[in-house]
User: Fold this.
Amino acid sequence: MTGRKHFILAIDGGGVRGLVPLRVLESLETRMRARGKSGPLHRYFDLMAGTSTGGLIVAGLSAPKPDDMSGAPAATVEELRGFFEVEAREVFHRRRLLERLVTNPLTLFDQRYDERPLEGLLKARFGWTSIASALTHVVLTAYDMEAREAVFMTNGRQSDGSRPDDFYFWQAVRATTAAPVYFEPAKVENLTRGTDQVLVDGGVFLNNPVLAAYVEGRKLGWRPEDMVILSLGTGARRHRGYSYEEAAGWGALGWLSPANDTPLLSVLSHGQATTAAYQADWLLPEAGVGEVIRLDGELPRAAEAIDNTRPGNIIELNGVADRIIRDNTELLDRLAGEISERSDWTAGGLSQHG
Assistant:
């Protein structure tokens, strides 16, 4: 017997390349509106999971708008697009060499970007709302530097059925986007324990959160056959490798140098994301999951950097998204139709979700 379908969204990390999956969501939303479904996306996805920039998107779509009782999300798809196309330039604004020398005389080992502009934008967008108040089920990933363990910030259930630890949304996003080399670790307040945690970007261990999304769905008691998982990538350079001559001469600084597009982080995040996609492609159908949809695209070389906010690169990223949408028109139409067959959920109606 087929039960009620549970639609799940999972979005990879990738810095400014988050514009790519956001554009795919924009296209899906447009198709749903054409079918009379004009509500925000949290009303149609039972669960949203995100790492790094994917976590930022998920939080924007699922957090309640501060001081607003209407059930509106903290950000619309259009507003998030504005963040990637415009506001991200402020976030990825390189500090002058003199400023970095004052901050750290060993400036080669200093973080590339000042976290304060990002924190200011997050506070303004999310206020002091917490994950427990999310409008749908969410999972944001991070890594605890002190406990040396993965952290899944969620409003679902723990394995023992208890409620998970709660965090402010803005701090959770700051944590999941705290990419080593680029930003300082995030010091976040665990609202449940009353203690602080030092967290970094979830991309260090789980750049593609599709399996975490599946596990969270199972913890909520959903049957695999009732799950439809939409997994969105942020683009990849599949045909651009590194030669022996390049890699052999890097040394420690070369592997971590932002000027060299931080090859260590690039290799680790891309390797993990593709491995998770491969595992999900094999394991989830074996587990009986109703459907797993993976959409990703090929990046031009110049668009691979997670911090390239130049107007020309934004055009390139929009082009990547346009090709994904064009090549998957029928699939997106079908998915929009399946989602639109269901009634809108009431805002904040998590009991209806799980």
Q: What stands out?
A: The two ends are 18 Å apart (CA to CA). Residues 96-109 have pLDDT under 50 and may be disordered.
